[in-house]
Design goal:
Blueprint lengths: L3 H9 L4 H8 L3 H9 L6 H11 L3 H5 L3
Helix pairs in contact: 2-3
């Protein structure tokens, strides 16, 4: 399942995948795979992404 919440939150902050990846210490490919739903990030990475995007874990990673 695609994670469009991460993609939209990243776009709201006007960040590229490369910029977000650098800020959280992963590769651009990792961010792309998270957004595509092809990678299940660690809790540590999820928290780092949330902090950079000013969102909560529920905002970005909780399935409804």
């Amino acid at each position: 399942m695609k994670n469009l919440k991460v993609k939209f939150a990243r776009m709201e902050k006007d960040l590229s995948q490369i910029e977000l990846a650098k800020r959280v210490g992963v590769t651009r490919q990792t961010i792309g795979m998270i957004e595509a739903g092809d990678y299940n990030p660690t809790l540590k990475l999820c928290i780092a992404i949330c902090k950079e995007l000013d969102k909560t874990l529920n905002d970005l990673f909780w399935e409804e």
